[in-house]
Amino acid sequence: MRGWRNGRRIWSGNMTYIVGLLATDGNLSGDGRHINFTSKDIQLIKTFRKCLGIKNKIGLKSSGFSEKKYFRIQFSDVILYRWFLEIGLTPAKTHTIGELKIPNQYFFDFIRGHFDGDGSCYSYWDKRWHSSFMFYIHFVSANEKHVVWLRQKIDELSKIKGHIDTIKRNGVYQLRYAKKDSKVLISKMYHQKNLPHLRRKHKKLEKIISTENKENNRKTTNI
Q1: Which pLDDT does position 66 carry in this prediction?
Q2: What's the pLDDT score for residue 208?
């Protein structure tokens, strides 16, 4: 396993990205040793495996709500499991996750993992404002304390403001950033080239930013 020195975990951008993935789509088994990660994206599962330097087999798992299958990887590592507990990840994290002990230096690597796990983005043309192009980035969690901590930490490190909504139909909390703040967040999440990321979501963000830049150029030309 990569990233250990004298029996202690060494923080890195890649490991912090893994923590973000586990905080959303991962699971610590109740046996005190097994770590699981599930995703509908095989590329994300392979990225997870590469970041950890493991070669465990990738399997399929039922969602529990439908017949749809998801990709899943499981591995056993007692020391790493205990380290995850120390920083705030827990079994049955849906109802227990709150603040995590993430170094500021790597916080936006964690946010990128969180976004690749359960985050989303969308855009649209708002005709109320002369066909203004709008877009948002969302983060979700079933635990309010975790979402509040995310907003406070992002505000502290980037000076942007997010808004928390409750999605009543599925009982989750949503942290939402509008266009101006989303652009700041995107630049921090992808702060250099060749970082581990979910290509599908990154391409969608690139398309959104490209449309935004074209719209800004059009407005400048028409002045």
Answers
A1: 64
A2: 95
